[in-house]
Amino acid sequence: MLFTETEIVGAQVIDPTPHADDRGRFMRAWCLQEFEEHGIHFVPVQANLGLNVRKGTVRGMHFQIEPALEAKLVRCTQGAMFDVVLDLRSTSPSFGKWYGAELTAANGRMLYLPEGCAHGYQTLADGTEMYYMASEIYTPDAANGVRFDDPAFGIQWPLQITSISVQDRGWPLVQR
Fold first, then answer.
1. 132 an active-site residue?
2. For residue 61, which of 11, 14, 118, 170 is within the disulfide window of CB 3.0 to 4.6 Å?
3. How many Cβ atoms sit within 10 Å of the Cβ of residue 70?
4. What pTM was computed for the model?
5. Residue range 9-30, pLDDT digits in tens
6. Which of 121, 131, 132, 138 is catalytic?
7. Torsion angle of alpha carbons 38, 42, 44, 45, nearest 10°?
8. C-alpha–C-alpha distance, residues 35 and 43, integer Å
9. Is 41 a catalytic residue?
10. How far apart are CA 36 and CA 30, in angstroms?
11. Across residues 128-146, what is the average pLDDT?
12. How many percent of the chain have pLDDT more than 90?
């Protein structure tokens, strides 16, 4: 796997190094040793799948607060998506900044999001499926979010938004 740091402290894009032949391809999706060698201390305890029917769907920006902070490793297993990490750690040099990466089933790329960061994505194709592993069990009392369109962050979604939940439209704007 190839690890590339982003502008968000601790967030990394991880590209697979597939082995391909006439049968298809094989690639590693996660390896504790490789992650540790790149300074990522990530032990997943839960895995989640999301299927999105329409291109342009936005989900997020979600995170969990203490005592259930979670890191995530996100990949696209079908279709394509624009995946976003938003740094909400007030002591971080990249606080308030965001980074987006195109994850597709074809490129196998992953995005690692450290604890204290919000996560969201927009589908770039109909029938997009995403899969992510989390370092913490989903905890409803710790679930939180910020608005996908909060001007304090200025996230630039690549497409017109075709679908978003009432909950994601209703997260509060951040006062900075």
1. yes
2. 118
3. 26
4. 0.95
5. 999 999 999 999 999 989 999 9
6. 132
7. 170
8. 10
9. no
10. 11
11. 97
12. 94
